[in-house]
Amino acid sequence: MKNINGENTMEKLIGNAVVGQSGGPTSAINATLAGVISGLQKAAALGTVNTIYGMKNGITGLMNERFIDLSAMPEDALCSLSLTPAAALGSCRKKLPEPSEDPAFFESLYAVFKKYDIRYFFYIGGNDSMDTVKKLSEYAKISGETYEMRFIGVPKTIDNDLLLTDHTPGYGSAAKYIATSVKEVLFDIAVYDVPAVTIVEIMGRDAGWLTMAAALPRLSGGREPNLVYLPERTFSVEEFIEDVRAELSKNPAVLVAVSEGIRLADGEYVGAMAQSGATDVFGHKYLAGTARTLERIVKEKIGCKVRSMELNLLQRCGAHLASATDIAESRGVGKFAVSAALSGESGVMAAFRRNDGEVYSVGYVTYPVNNVANGVKTVPDAFINERGNGITDAGLRYIAPLITGETDLHFENGMPDYFSFENN
Amino acid sequence: MKNINGENTMEKLIGNAVVGQSGGPTSAINATLAGVISGLQKAAALGTVNTIYGMKNGITGLMNERFIDLSAMPEDALCSLSLTPAAALGSCRKKLPEPSEDPAFFESLYAVFKKYDIRYFFYIGGNDSMDTVKKLSEYAKISGETYEMRFIGVPKTIDNDLLLTDHTPGYGSAAKYIATSVKEVLFDIAVYDVPAVTIVEIMGRDAGWLTMAAALPRLSGGREPNLVYLPERTFSVEEFIEDVRAELSKNPAVLVAVSEGIRLADGEYVGAMAQSGATDVFGHKYLAGTARTLERIVKEKIGCKVRSMELNLLQRCGAHLASATDIAESRGVGKFAVSAALSGESGVMAAFRRNDGEVYSVGYVTYPVNNVANGVKTVPDAFINERGNGITDAGLRYIAPLITGETDLHFENGMPDYFSFENN
User: Fold this and answer.
1) pTM, whole model, 2 decimals?
2) Chain B residues near residue A57 by CB distance under 8 angstroms
3) Alpha-carbon distance B421 to B424, whole Å?
């Protein structure tokens, strides 16, 4: 709320702040937490914010009044927190009811806000977390509630599937982990000269952003995965076998990278044979075994040596390979979210806009959370080759700057020295 | 062969040298190759060795006369090689026949040695590779062959299961990868407060050395795996379920580390249900699915959330987490192997002896390869707790120094910049 001269005309909203983390861990969500805390500490120094509360285990901690006081965290702890994987405050997977259907639920949350004099609410998470911010903002509008609040979503997901933002905090670090791991596996499988197929399964239910990162070793000018399959294209077992045979005729060691979420023409997941059938509270299917299924198919149809592997949890928590670019941006967007709240915004998600120009840089912007929540951004056609089995150079140009730079992580006893609230 | 004054009384054996790599990749086998090359380059400067040949794909490259000339490799290339995973010369899994049963095979190898004026043979590998050195040495003894050769084995295996040596080159780097990864997974699983069991499967068919490394996060004073099972102890499904229940009663997030090779009282592998039934050329059973099998058991018997994961190939090729101690020792033992050969030794394996004292250090020694080949060193009782579900502090004291130090790996485009002969 600035006037024509750029002066802030809004009356200061003075009170406490609460910040929470939600959804799956990443290597950068704590950097965003550190950014929010340092932004709020600055606001506290200026007298706008008093106490900075951290919700334990996301919105469930708010409901149960389980808070950590973050007001006095020193800068060295914030730096260490920024390089620590997972979610230092704990996380949850809690879907809020519709405000129109269960207003009592939101009244009880407001009771907690009022009890603790909380005026600022920051929620760091993925798509489902933006849904939480959206519903809180909606309730504020439709309920006639007069207690003023500012609700800000701060993105976090390795999946990079949030709308509008150029990319998501956490994606670059996961991509760096995947690119490095795939590069190392390429070295590993090249040592034997007998025909062998290695299939690497990478996270990504509906979008292939993470699997795209497997193609990054091309930038090194050496070997790269022979075949890369994303969920954006229908998967054909026949074409896959053709592709593998063609690659084996050129090179004995063939590496295939696949998204866990690739599907057949009838919409069924390739990994469906090995899937548990369970769904999470958001109705997402739990998948396992896409690479294993393809392993069995190669064994049966081609009969050569074949192995499958999943990068599994480490692609989201392998913070020793965090991207310095990602960590800096993730902390930056957290700090920016605070300034957006202080300047009067609510119901928005802080985001990245990539600046034009040869040299990569981003600016911070906000988008109405309504335009973000529950949508999925998929990999554009221009990033996938015509056959649907590889990544284009345009795709690599998009992703390359996001994985650059190594953090100055401190090691102790030969292992990364990470931050935890229990030990501090 | 030194006289009482320590002078070398042996006549110099002048000729060419060949070096090869065999068995599974590690993060340190190229450091040993670099050590052998630099040792030989020094010998070349002194006029003992002329050309330094590298066998492509181990002994099969020797048989087919597929060589790379390593004589002129510059020091910066050797440094880069030292930090590169897998086997830069390529590897093989070739079991030699018994010299008494197939002398013609060895005659053909000697024909190659003679053709290329090769007098020095270095073979970097694991147990099966020491078997190769043993048979070559045996043949030299029993055949009456007068062409003088020196055969030296240089150990390499992430499994740490070679006899006599304090530990094996490559083990420390794999252990560092495992310790770091498990520590990161501990952070990841701690974010939710619902009961959940995570089972991490670690390589190790007959010995639990690698799985021991999962206990290293204890040194950080934070969380550590709740349960660790090695193949050295018989695995009981009933006790496992008891153990998991007991841990779940204390903490919602339970992490279990298991060796792929754990077996039931009847000798059957736990992962046998999911195993392919195939064996490799050495008759080893190919295992898959120990953690998956336990996942199913926990789901059935306890019914809580449970997931399994395998560290898979990355534990042997994740050189971005190589131990600086391991890389330095691995290069050192390669160089030492050359000096052993020059001083007249043959039919021996270069090895580490841990020095006494508070501060960790090793000396280089040789052992007759006959005493090493085809034996397996398992984890001693003192390193495993009484219940057989955890690692003792004595075990951690053994392993801790081996993972210390980080290498100064160069990154380019956000990924490690590794060496390959194709690009140099």
Assistant:
1) 0.94
2) 191-193
3) 5
